[in-house]
Structures are given as C-alpha cells and as structure tokens.
Amino acid sequence: MIGRRVLTGALALGAGAFAYASLIERNAFGVREESIDLLEASAQPIRVLHLSDFHLAPWQTRKIDWIRSLVELEPDLVIATGDMLGHVGALPALRSALAPYAGTPGVYVHGSNDYFGPTFPNPLEYLWKPSSGREHGEPLDTPRLEDLYTTLGWMNLNNSSGRLTVNGSRLIVAGTDDAHLGLDRLDSVAGTVDSTLESETEPLSAFIGVTHAPYRRVLNFLTTLGADVIFAGHTHGGQVCVPGVGALTTNSDLPLSLARGLSVWNHHDRSSFLNVSAGVGTSIYAPIRFACPPEAVLVTLRPRDFGYS
Asked: For 2-303, which CATH class?
C-alpha cells in the first residue's frame, strides 16, 4: 500500500512538473537586461536587442505578439543569432514577428534550424552529448529567410564582417555560420575582417562578434581576432535545468556554467564579454522549459568611465 502511494505521488509530481514546464514556463517570456562599459567616454549608449532561437511555428501567436512588442524597448541595434525557424511553414509568421523592426539596424547569423526543420529528439541522449549535425529534418527555404532579413535592412554575418554606425559610434561586426553544423569558416571571417580594417579610415568604437553555437573554437577565434563582445544562442540555457544546480547540457562544448547570461571569455592574453541567450522558443518536438524561462536580452553598450575617484 505504501509503495503504491509513493508511486502514485511520484507520477502526480512528474505530471505536474511536465504541465508546468510545457504550459506555463515555456510561455513565460521575459527580458533580461545587461550593460557593458565598452564605448569611448563621449559616446552615446547603444541599446542592443539580442534575439535568438525563436524556433517559430505558424500557430505560435502568443510568441509572435510578444516578439513584436519588444520594439517598445527602442533598440538601436538588433542582433539575431539564429534558429529563428521551427517549421517549414514558419516564414510568414517570422515576417509578422519581425515587421516592427524594419529600418532598425540589425545583423544576423544562421543556426541549424534555419537550414533544416526539427527532428524528434532522444531526450536521454540530449543530456549526455550534443545533438549530431547529421540529424537533419526537411530542408527549409533559407534563401527566402535571407530575403526577409534583407527587407528589414539587416546585414548577413555568416562567415562575414562589415561596418555599422550606430548613435555616432563606428562598429565592426563579424560573425560565423553555424558551428553546430560545421559551417563556420574561420579563415574566411579573418580575411573579411582584415579587408574591413584595411579600408577603415576612422577610429572604431567597438568590435562585435556574432555566432549561433558558442563552441570554444569559435569563441577563441573571435576573442583572438579582437572582439570586445560576442553574442551567441543555441544552448537554450540548458532548457531543462535543476534548481540550484543549473544547466545539464549546452548542446556544445561550452562549459555548463556559461549556458546562459553575461560572462567574460578568456583565451590566452585576450578576453571578450560573452552574452549567451537562453532563447525564446523550443523545438516543437520538445516544448518544455524548466527552471530556464525564455528570454530576449537587452544589452546596453555604455561609455567607459575614464574618471578618477
């Protein structure tokens, strides 16, 4: 009798936790705010809206409306770090979600789910090793996704770089294609950065690195290249976390302690700020979050204080 009660209680607890994770926390969208003292003393602050991992499906109207509402944060720059699509029919939904940002400067890179649709995961395997880049769903219309970004006026940073002027600050931006699929071409990125720097005639205020999957090789490369701050997604913050412990996986070789949030990445004698977003969505085949709510991130780049106390 006691054993049956224990089993019944365990099943009820598990069912309650699943209901909370799938119905409540998965839709508990929020904004994490960070600030970094990075710009020259006379510069105006730059409000960067970091968007990542929408995994958007056509029926997710609550998510679409929330993404649209973020324009009220009045970002000066939008950085999209990939996995925006979550369904073969998601492009019209994504177009609606991002329409308010037309004309706001932006940059983007792709994640694996901007190339291929989701597949049904093995949840036990997910906890002990990164998902395989060979586990593809059906191909998605990536060229049309890029056309959408072009209509917004956003810059393609997949293995590329460029320059932006935001609030009077001249920025160099460089990014990689999805490292999870092995599409990052670091030599190509270095070459484009060298060309950009050679053609620059005025001082630059900051170097921003952008990638989807924060593998160590990419973070080390961007830090060595001179990035002041790196924006990444992919990890979902662990997606299913243990309270008091944190993430059980980053789906990459990133340390678990860095699965979500603002930190400093050190490599040899250089360092970069690193912002990893837990993302807005989940795969339609794993629609749960626990102790890791969805997020967008507003990062304010502020002038450094050169004063003396």
From this structure: alpha beta
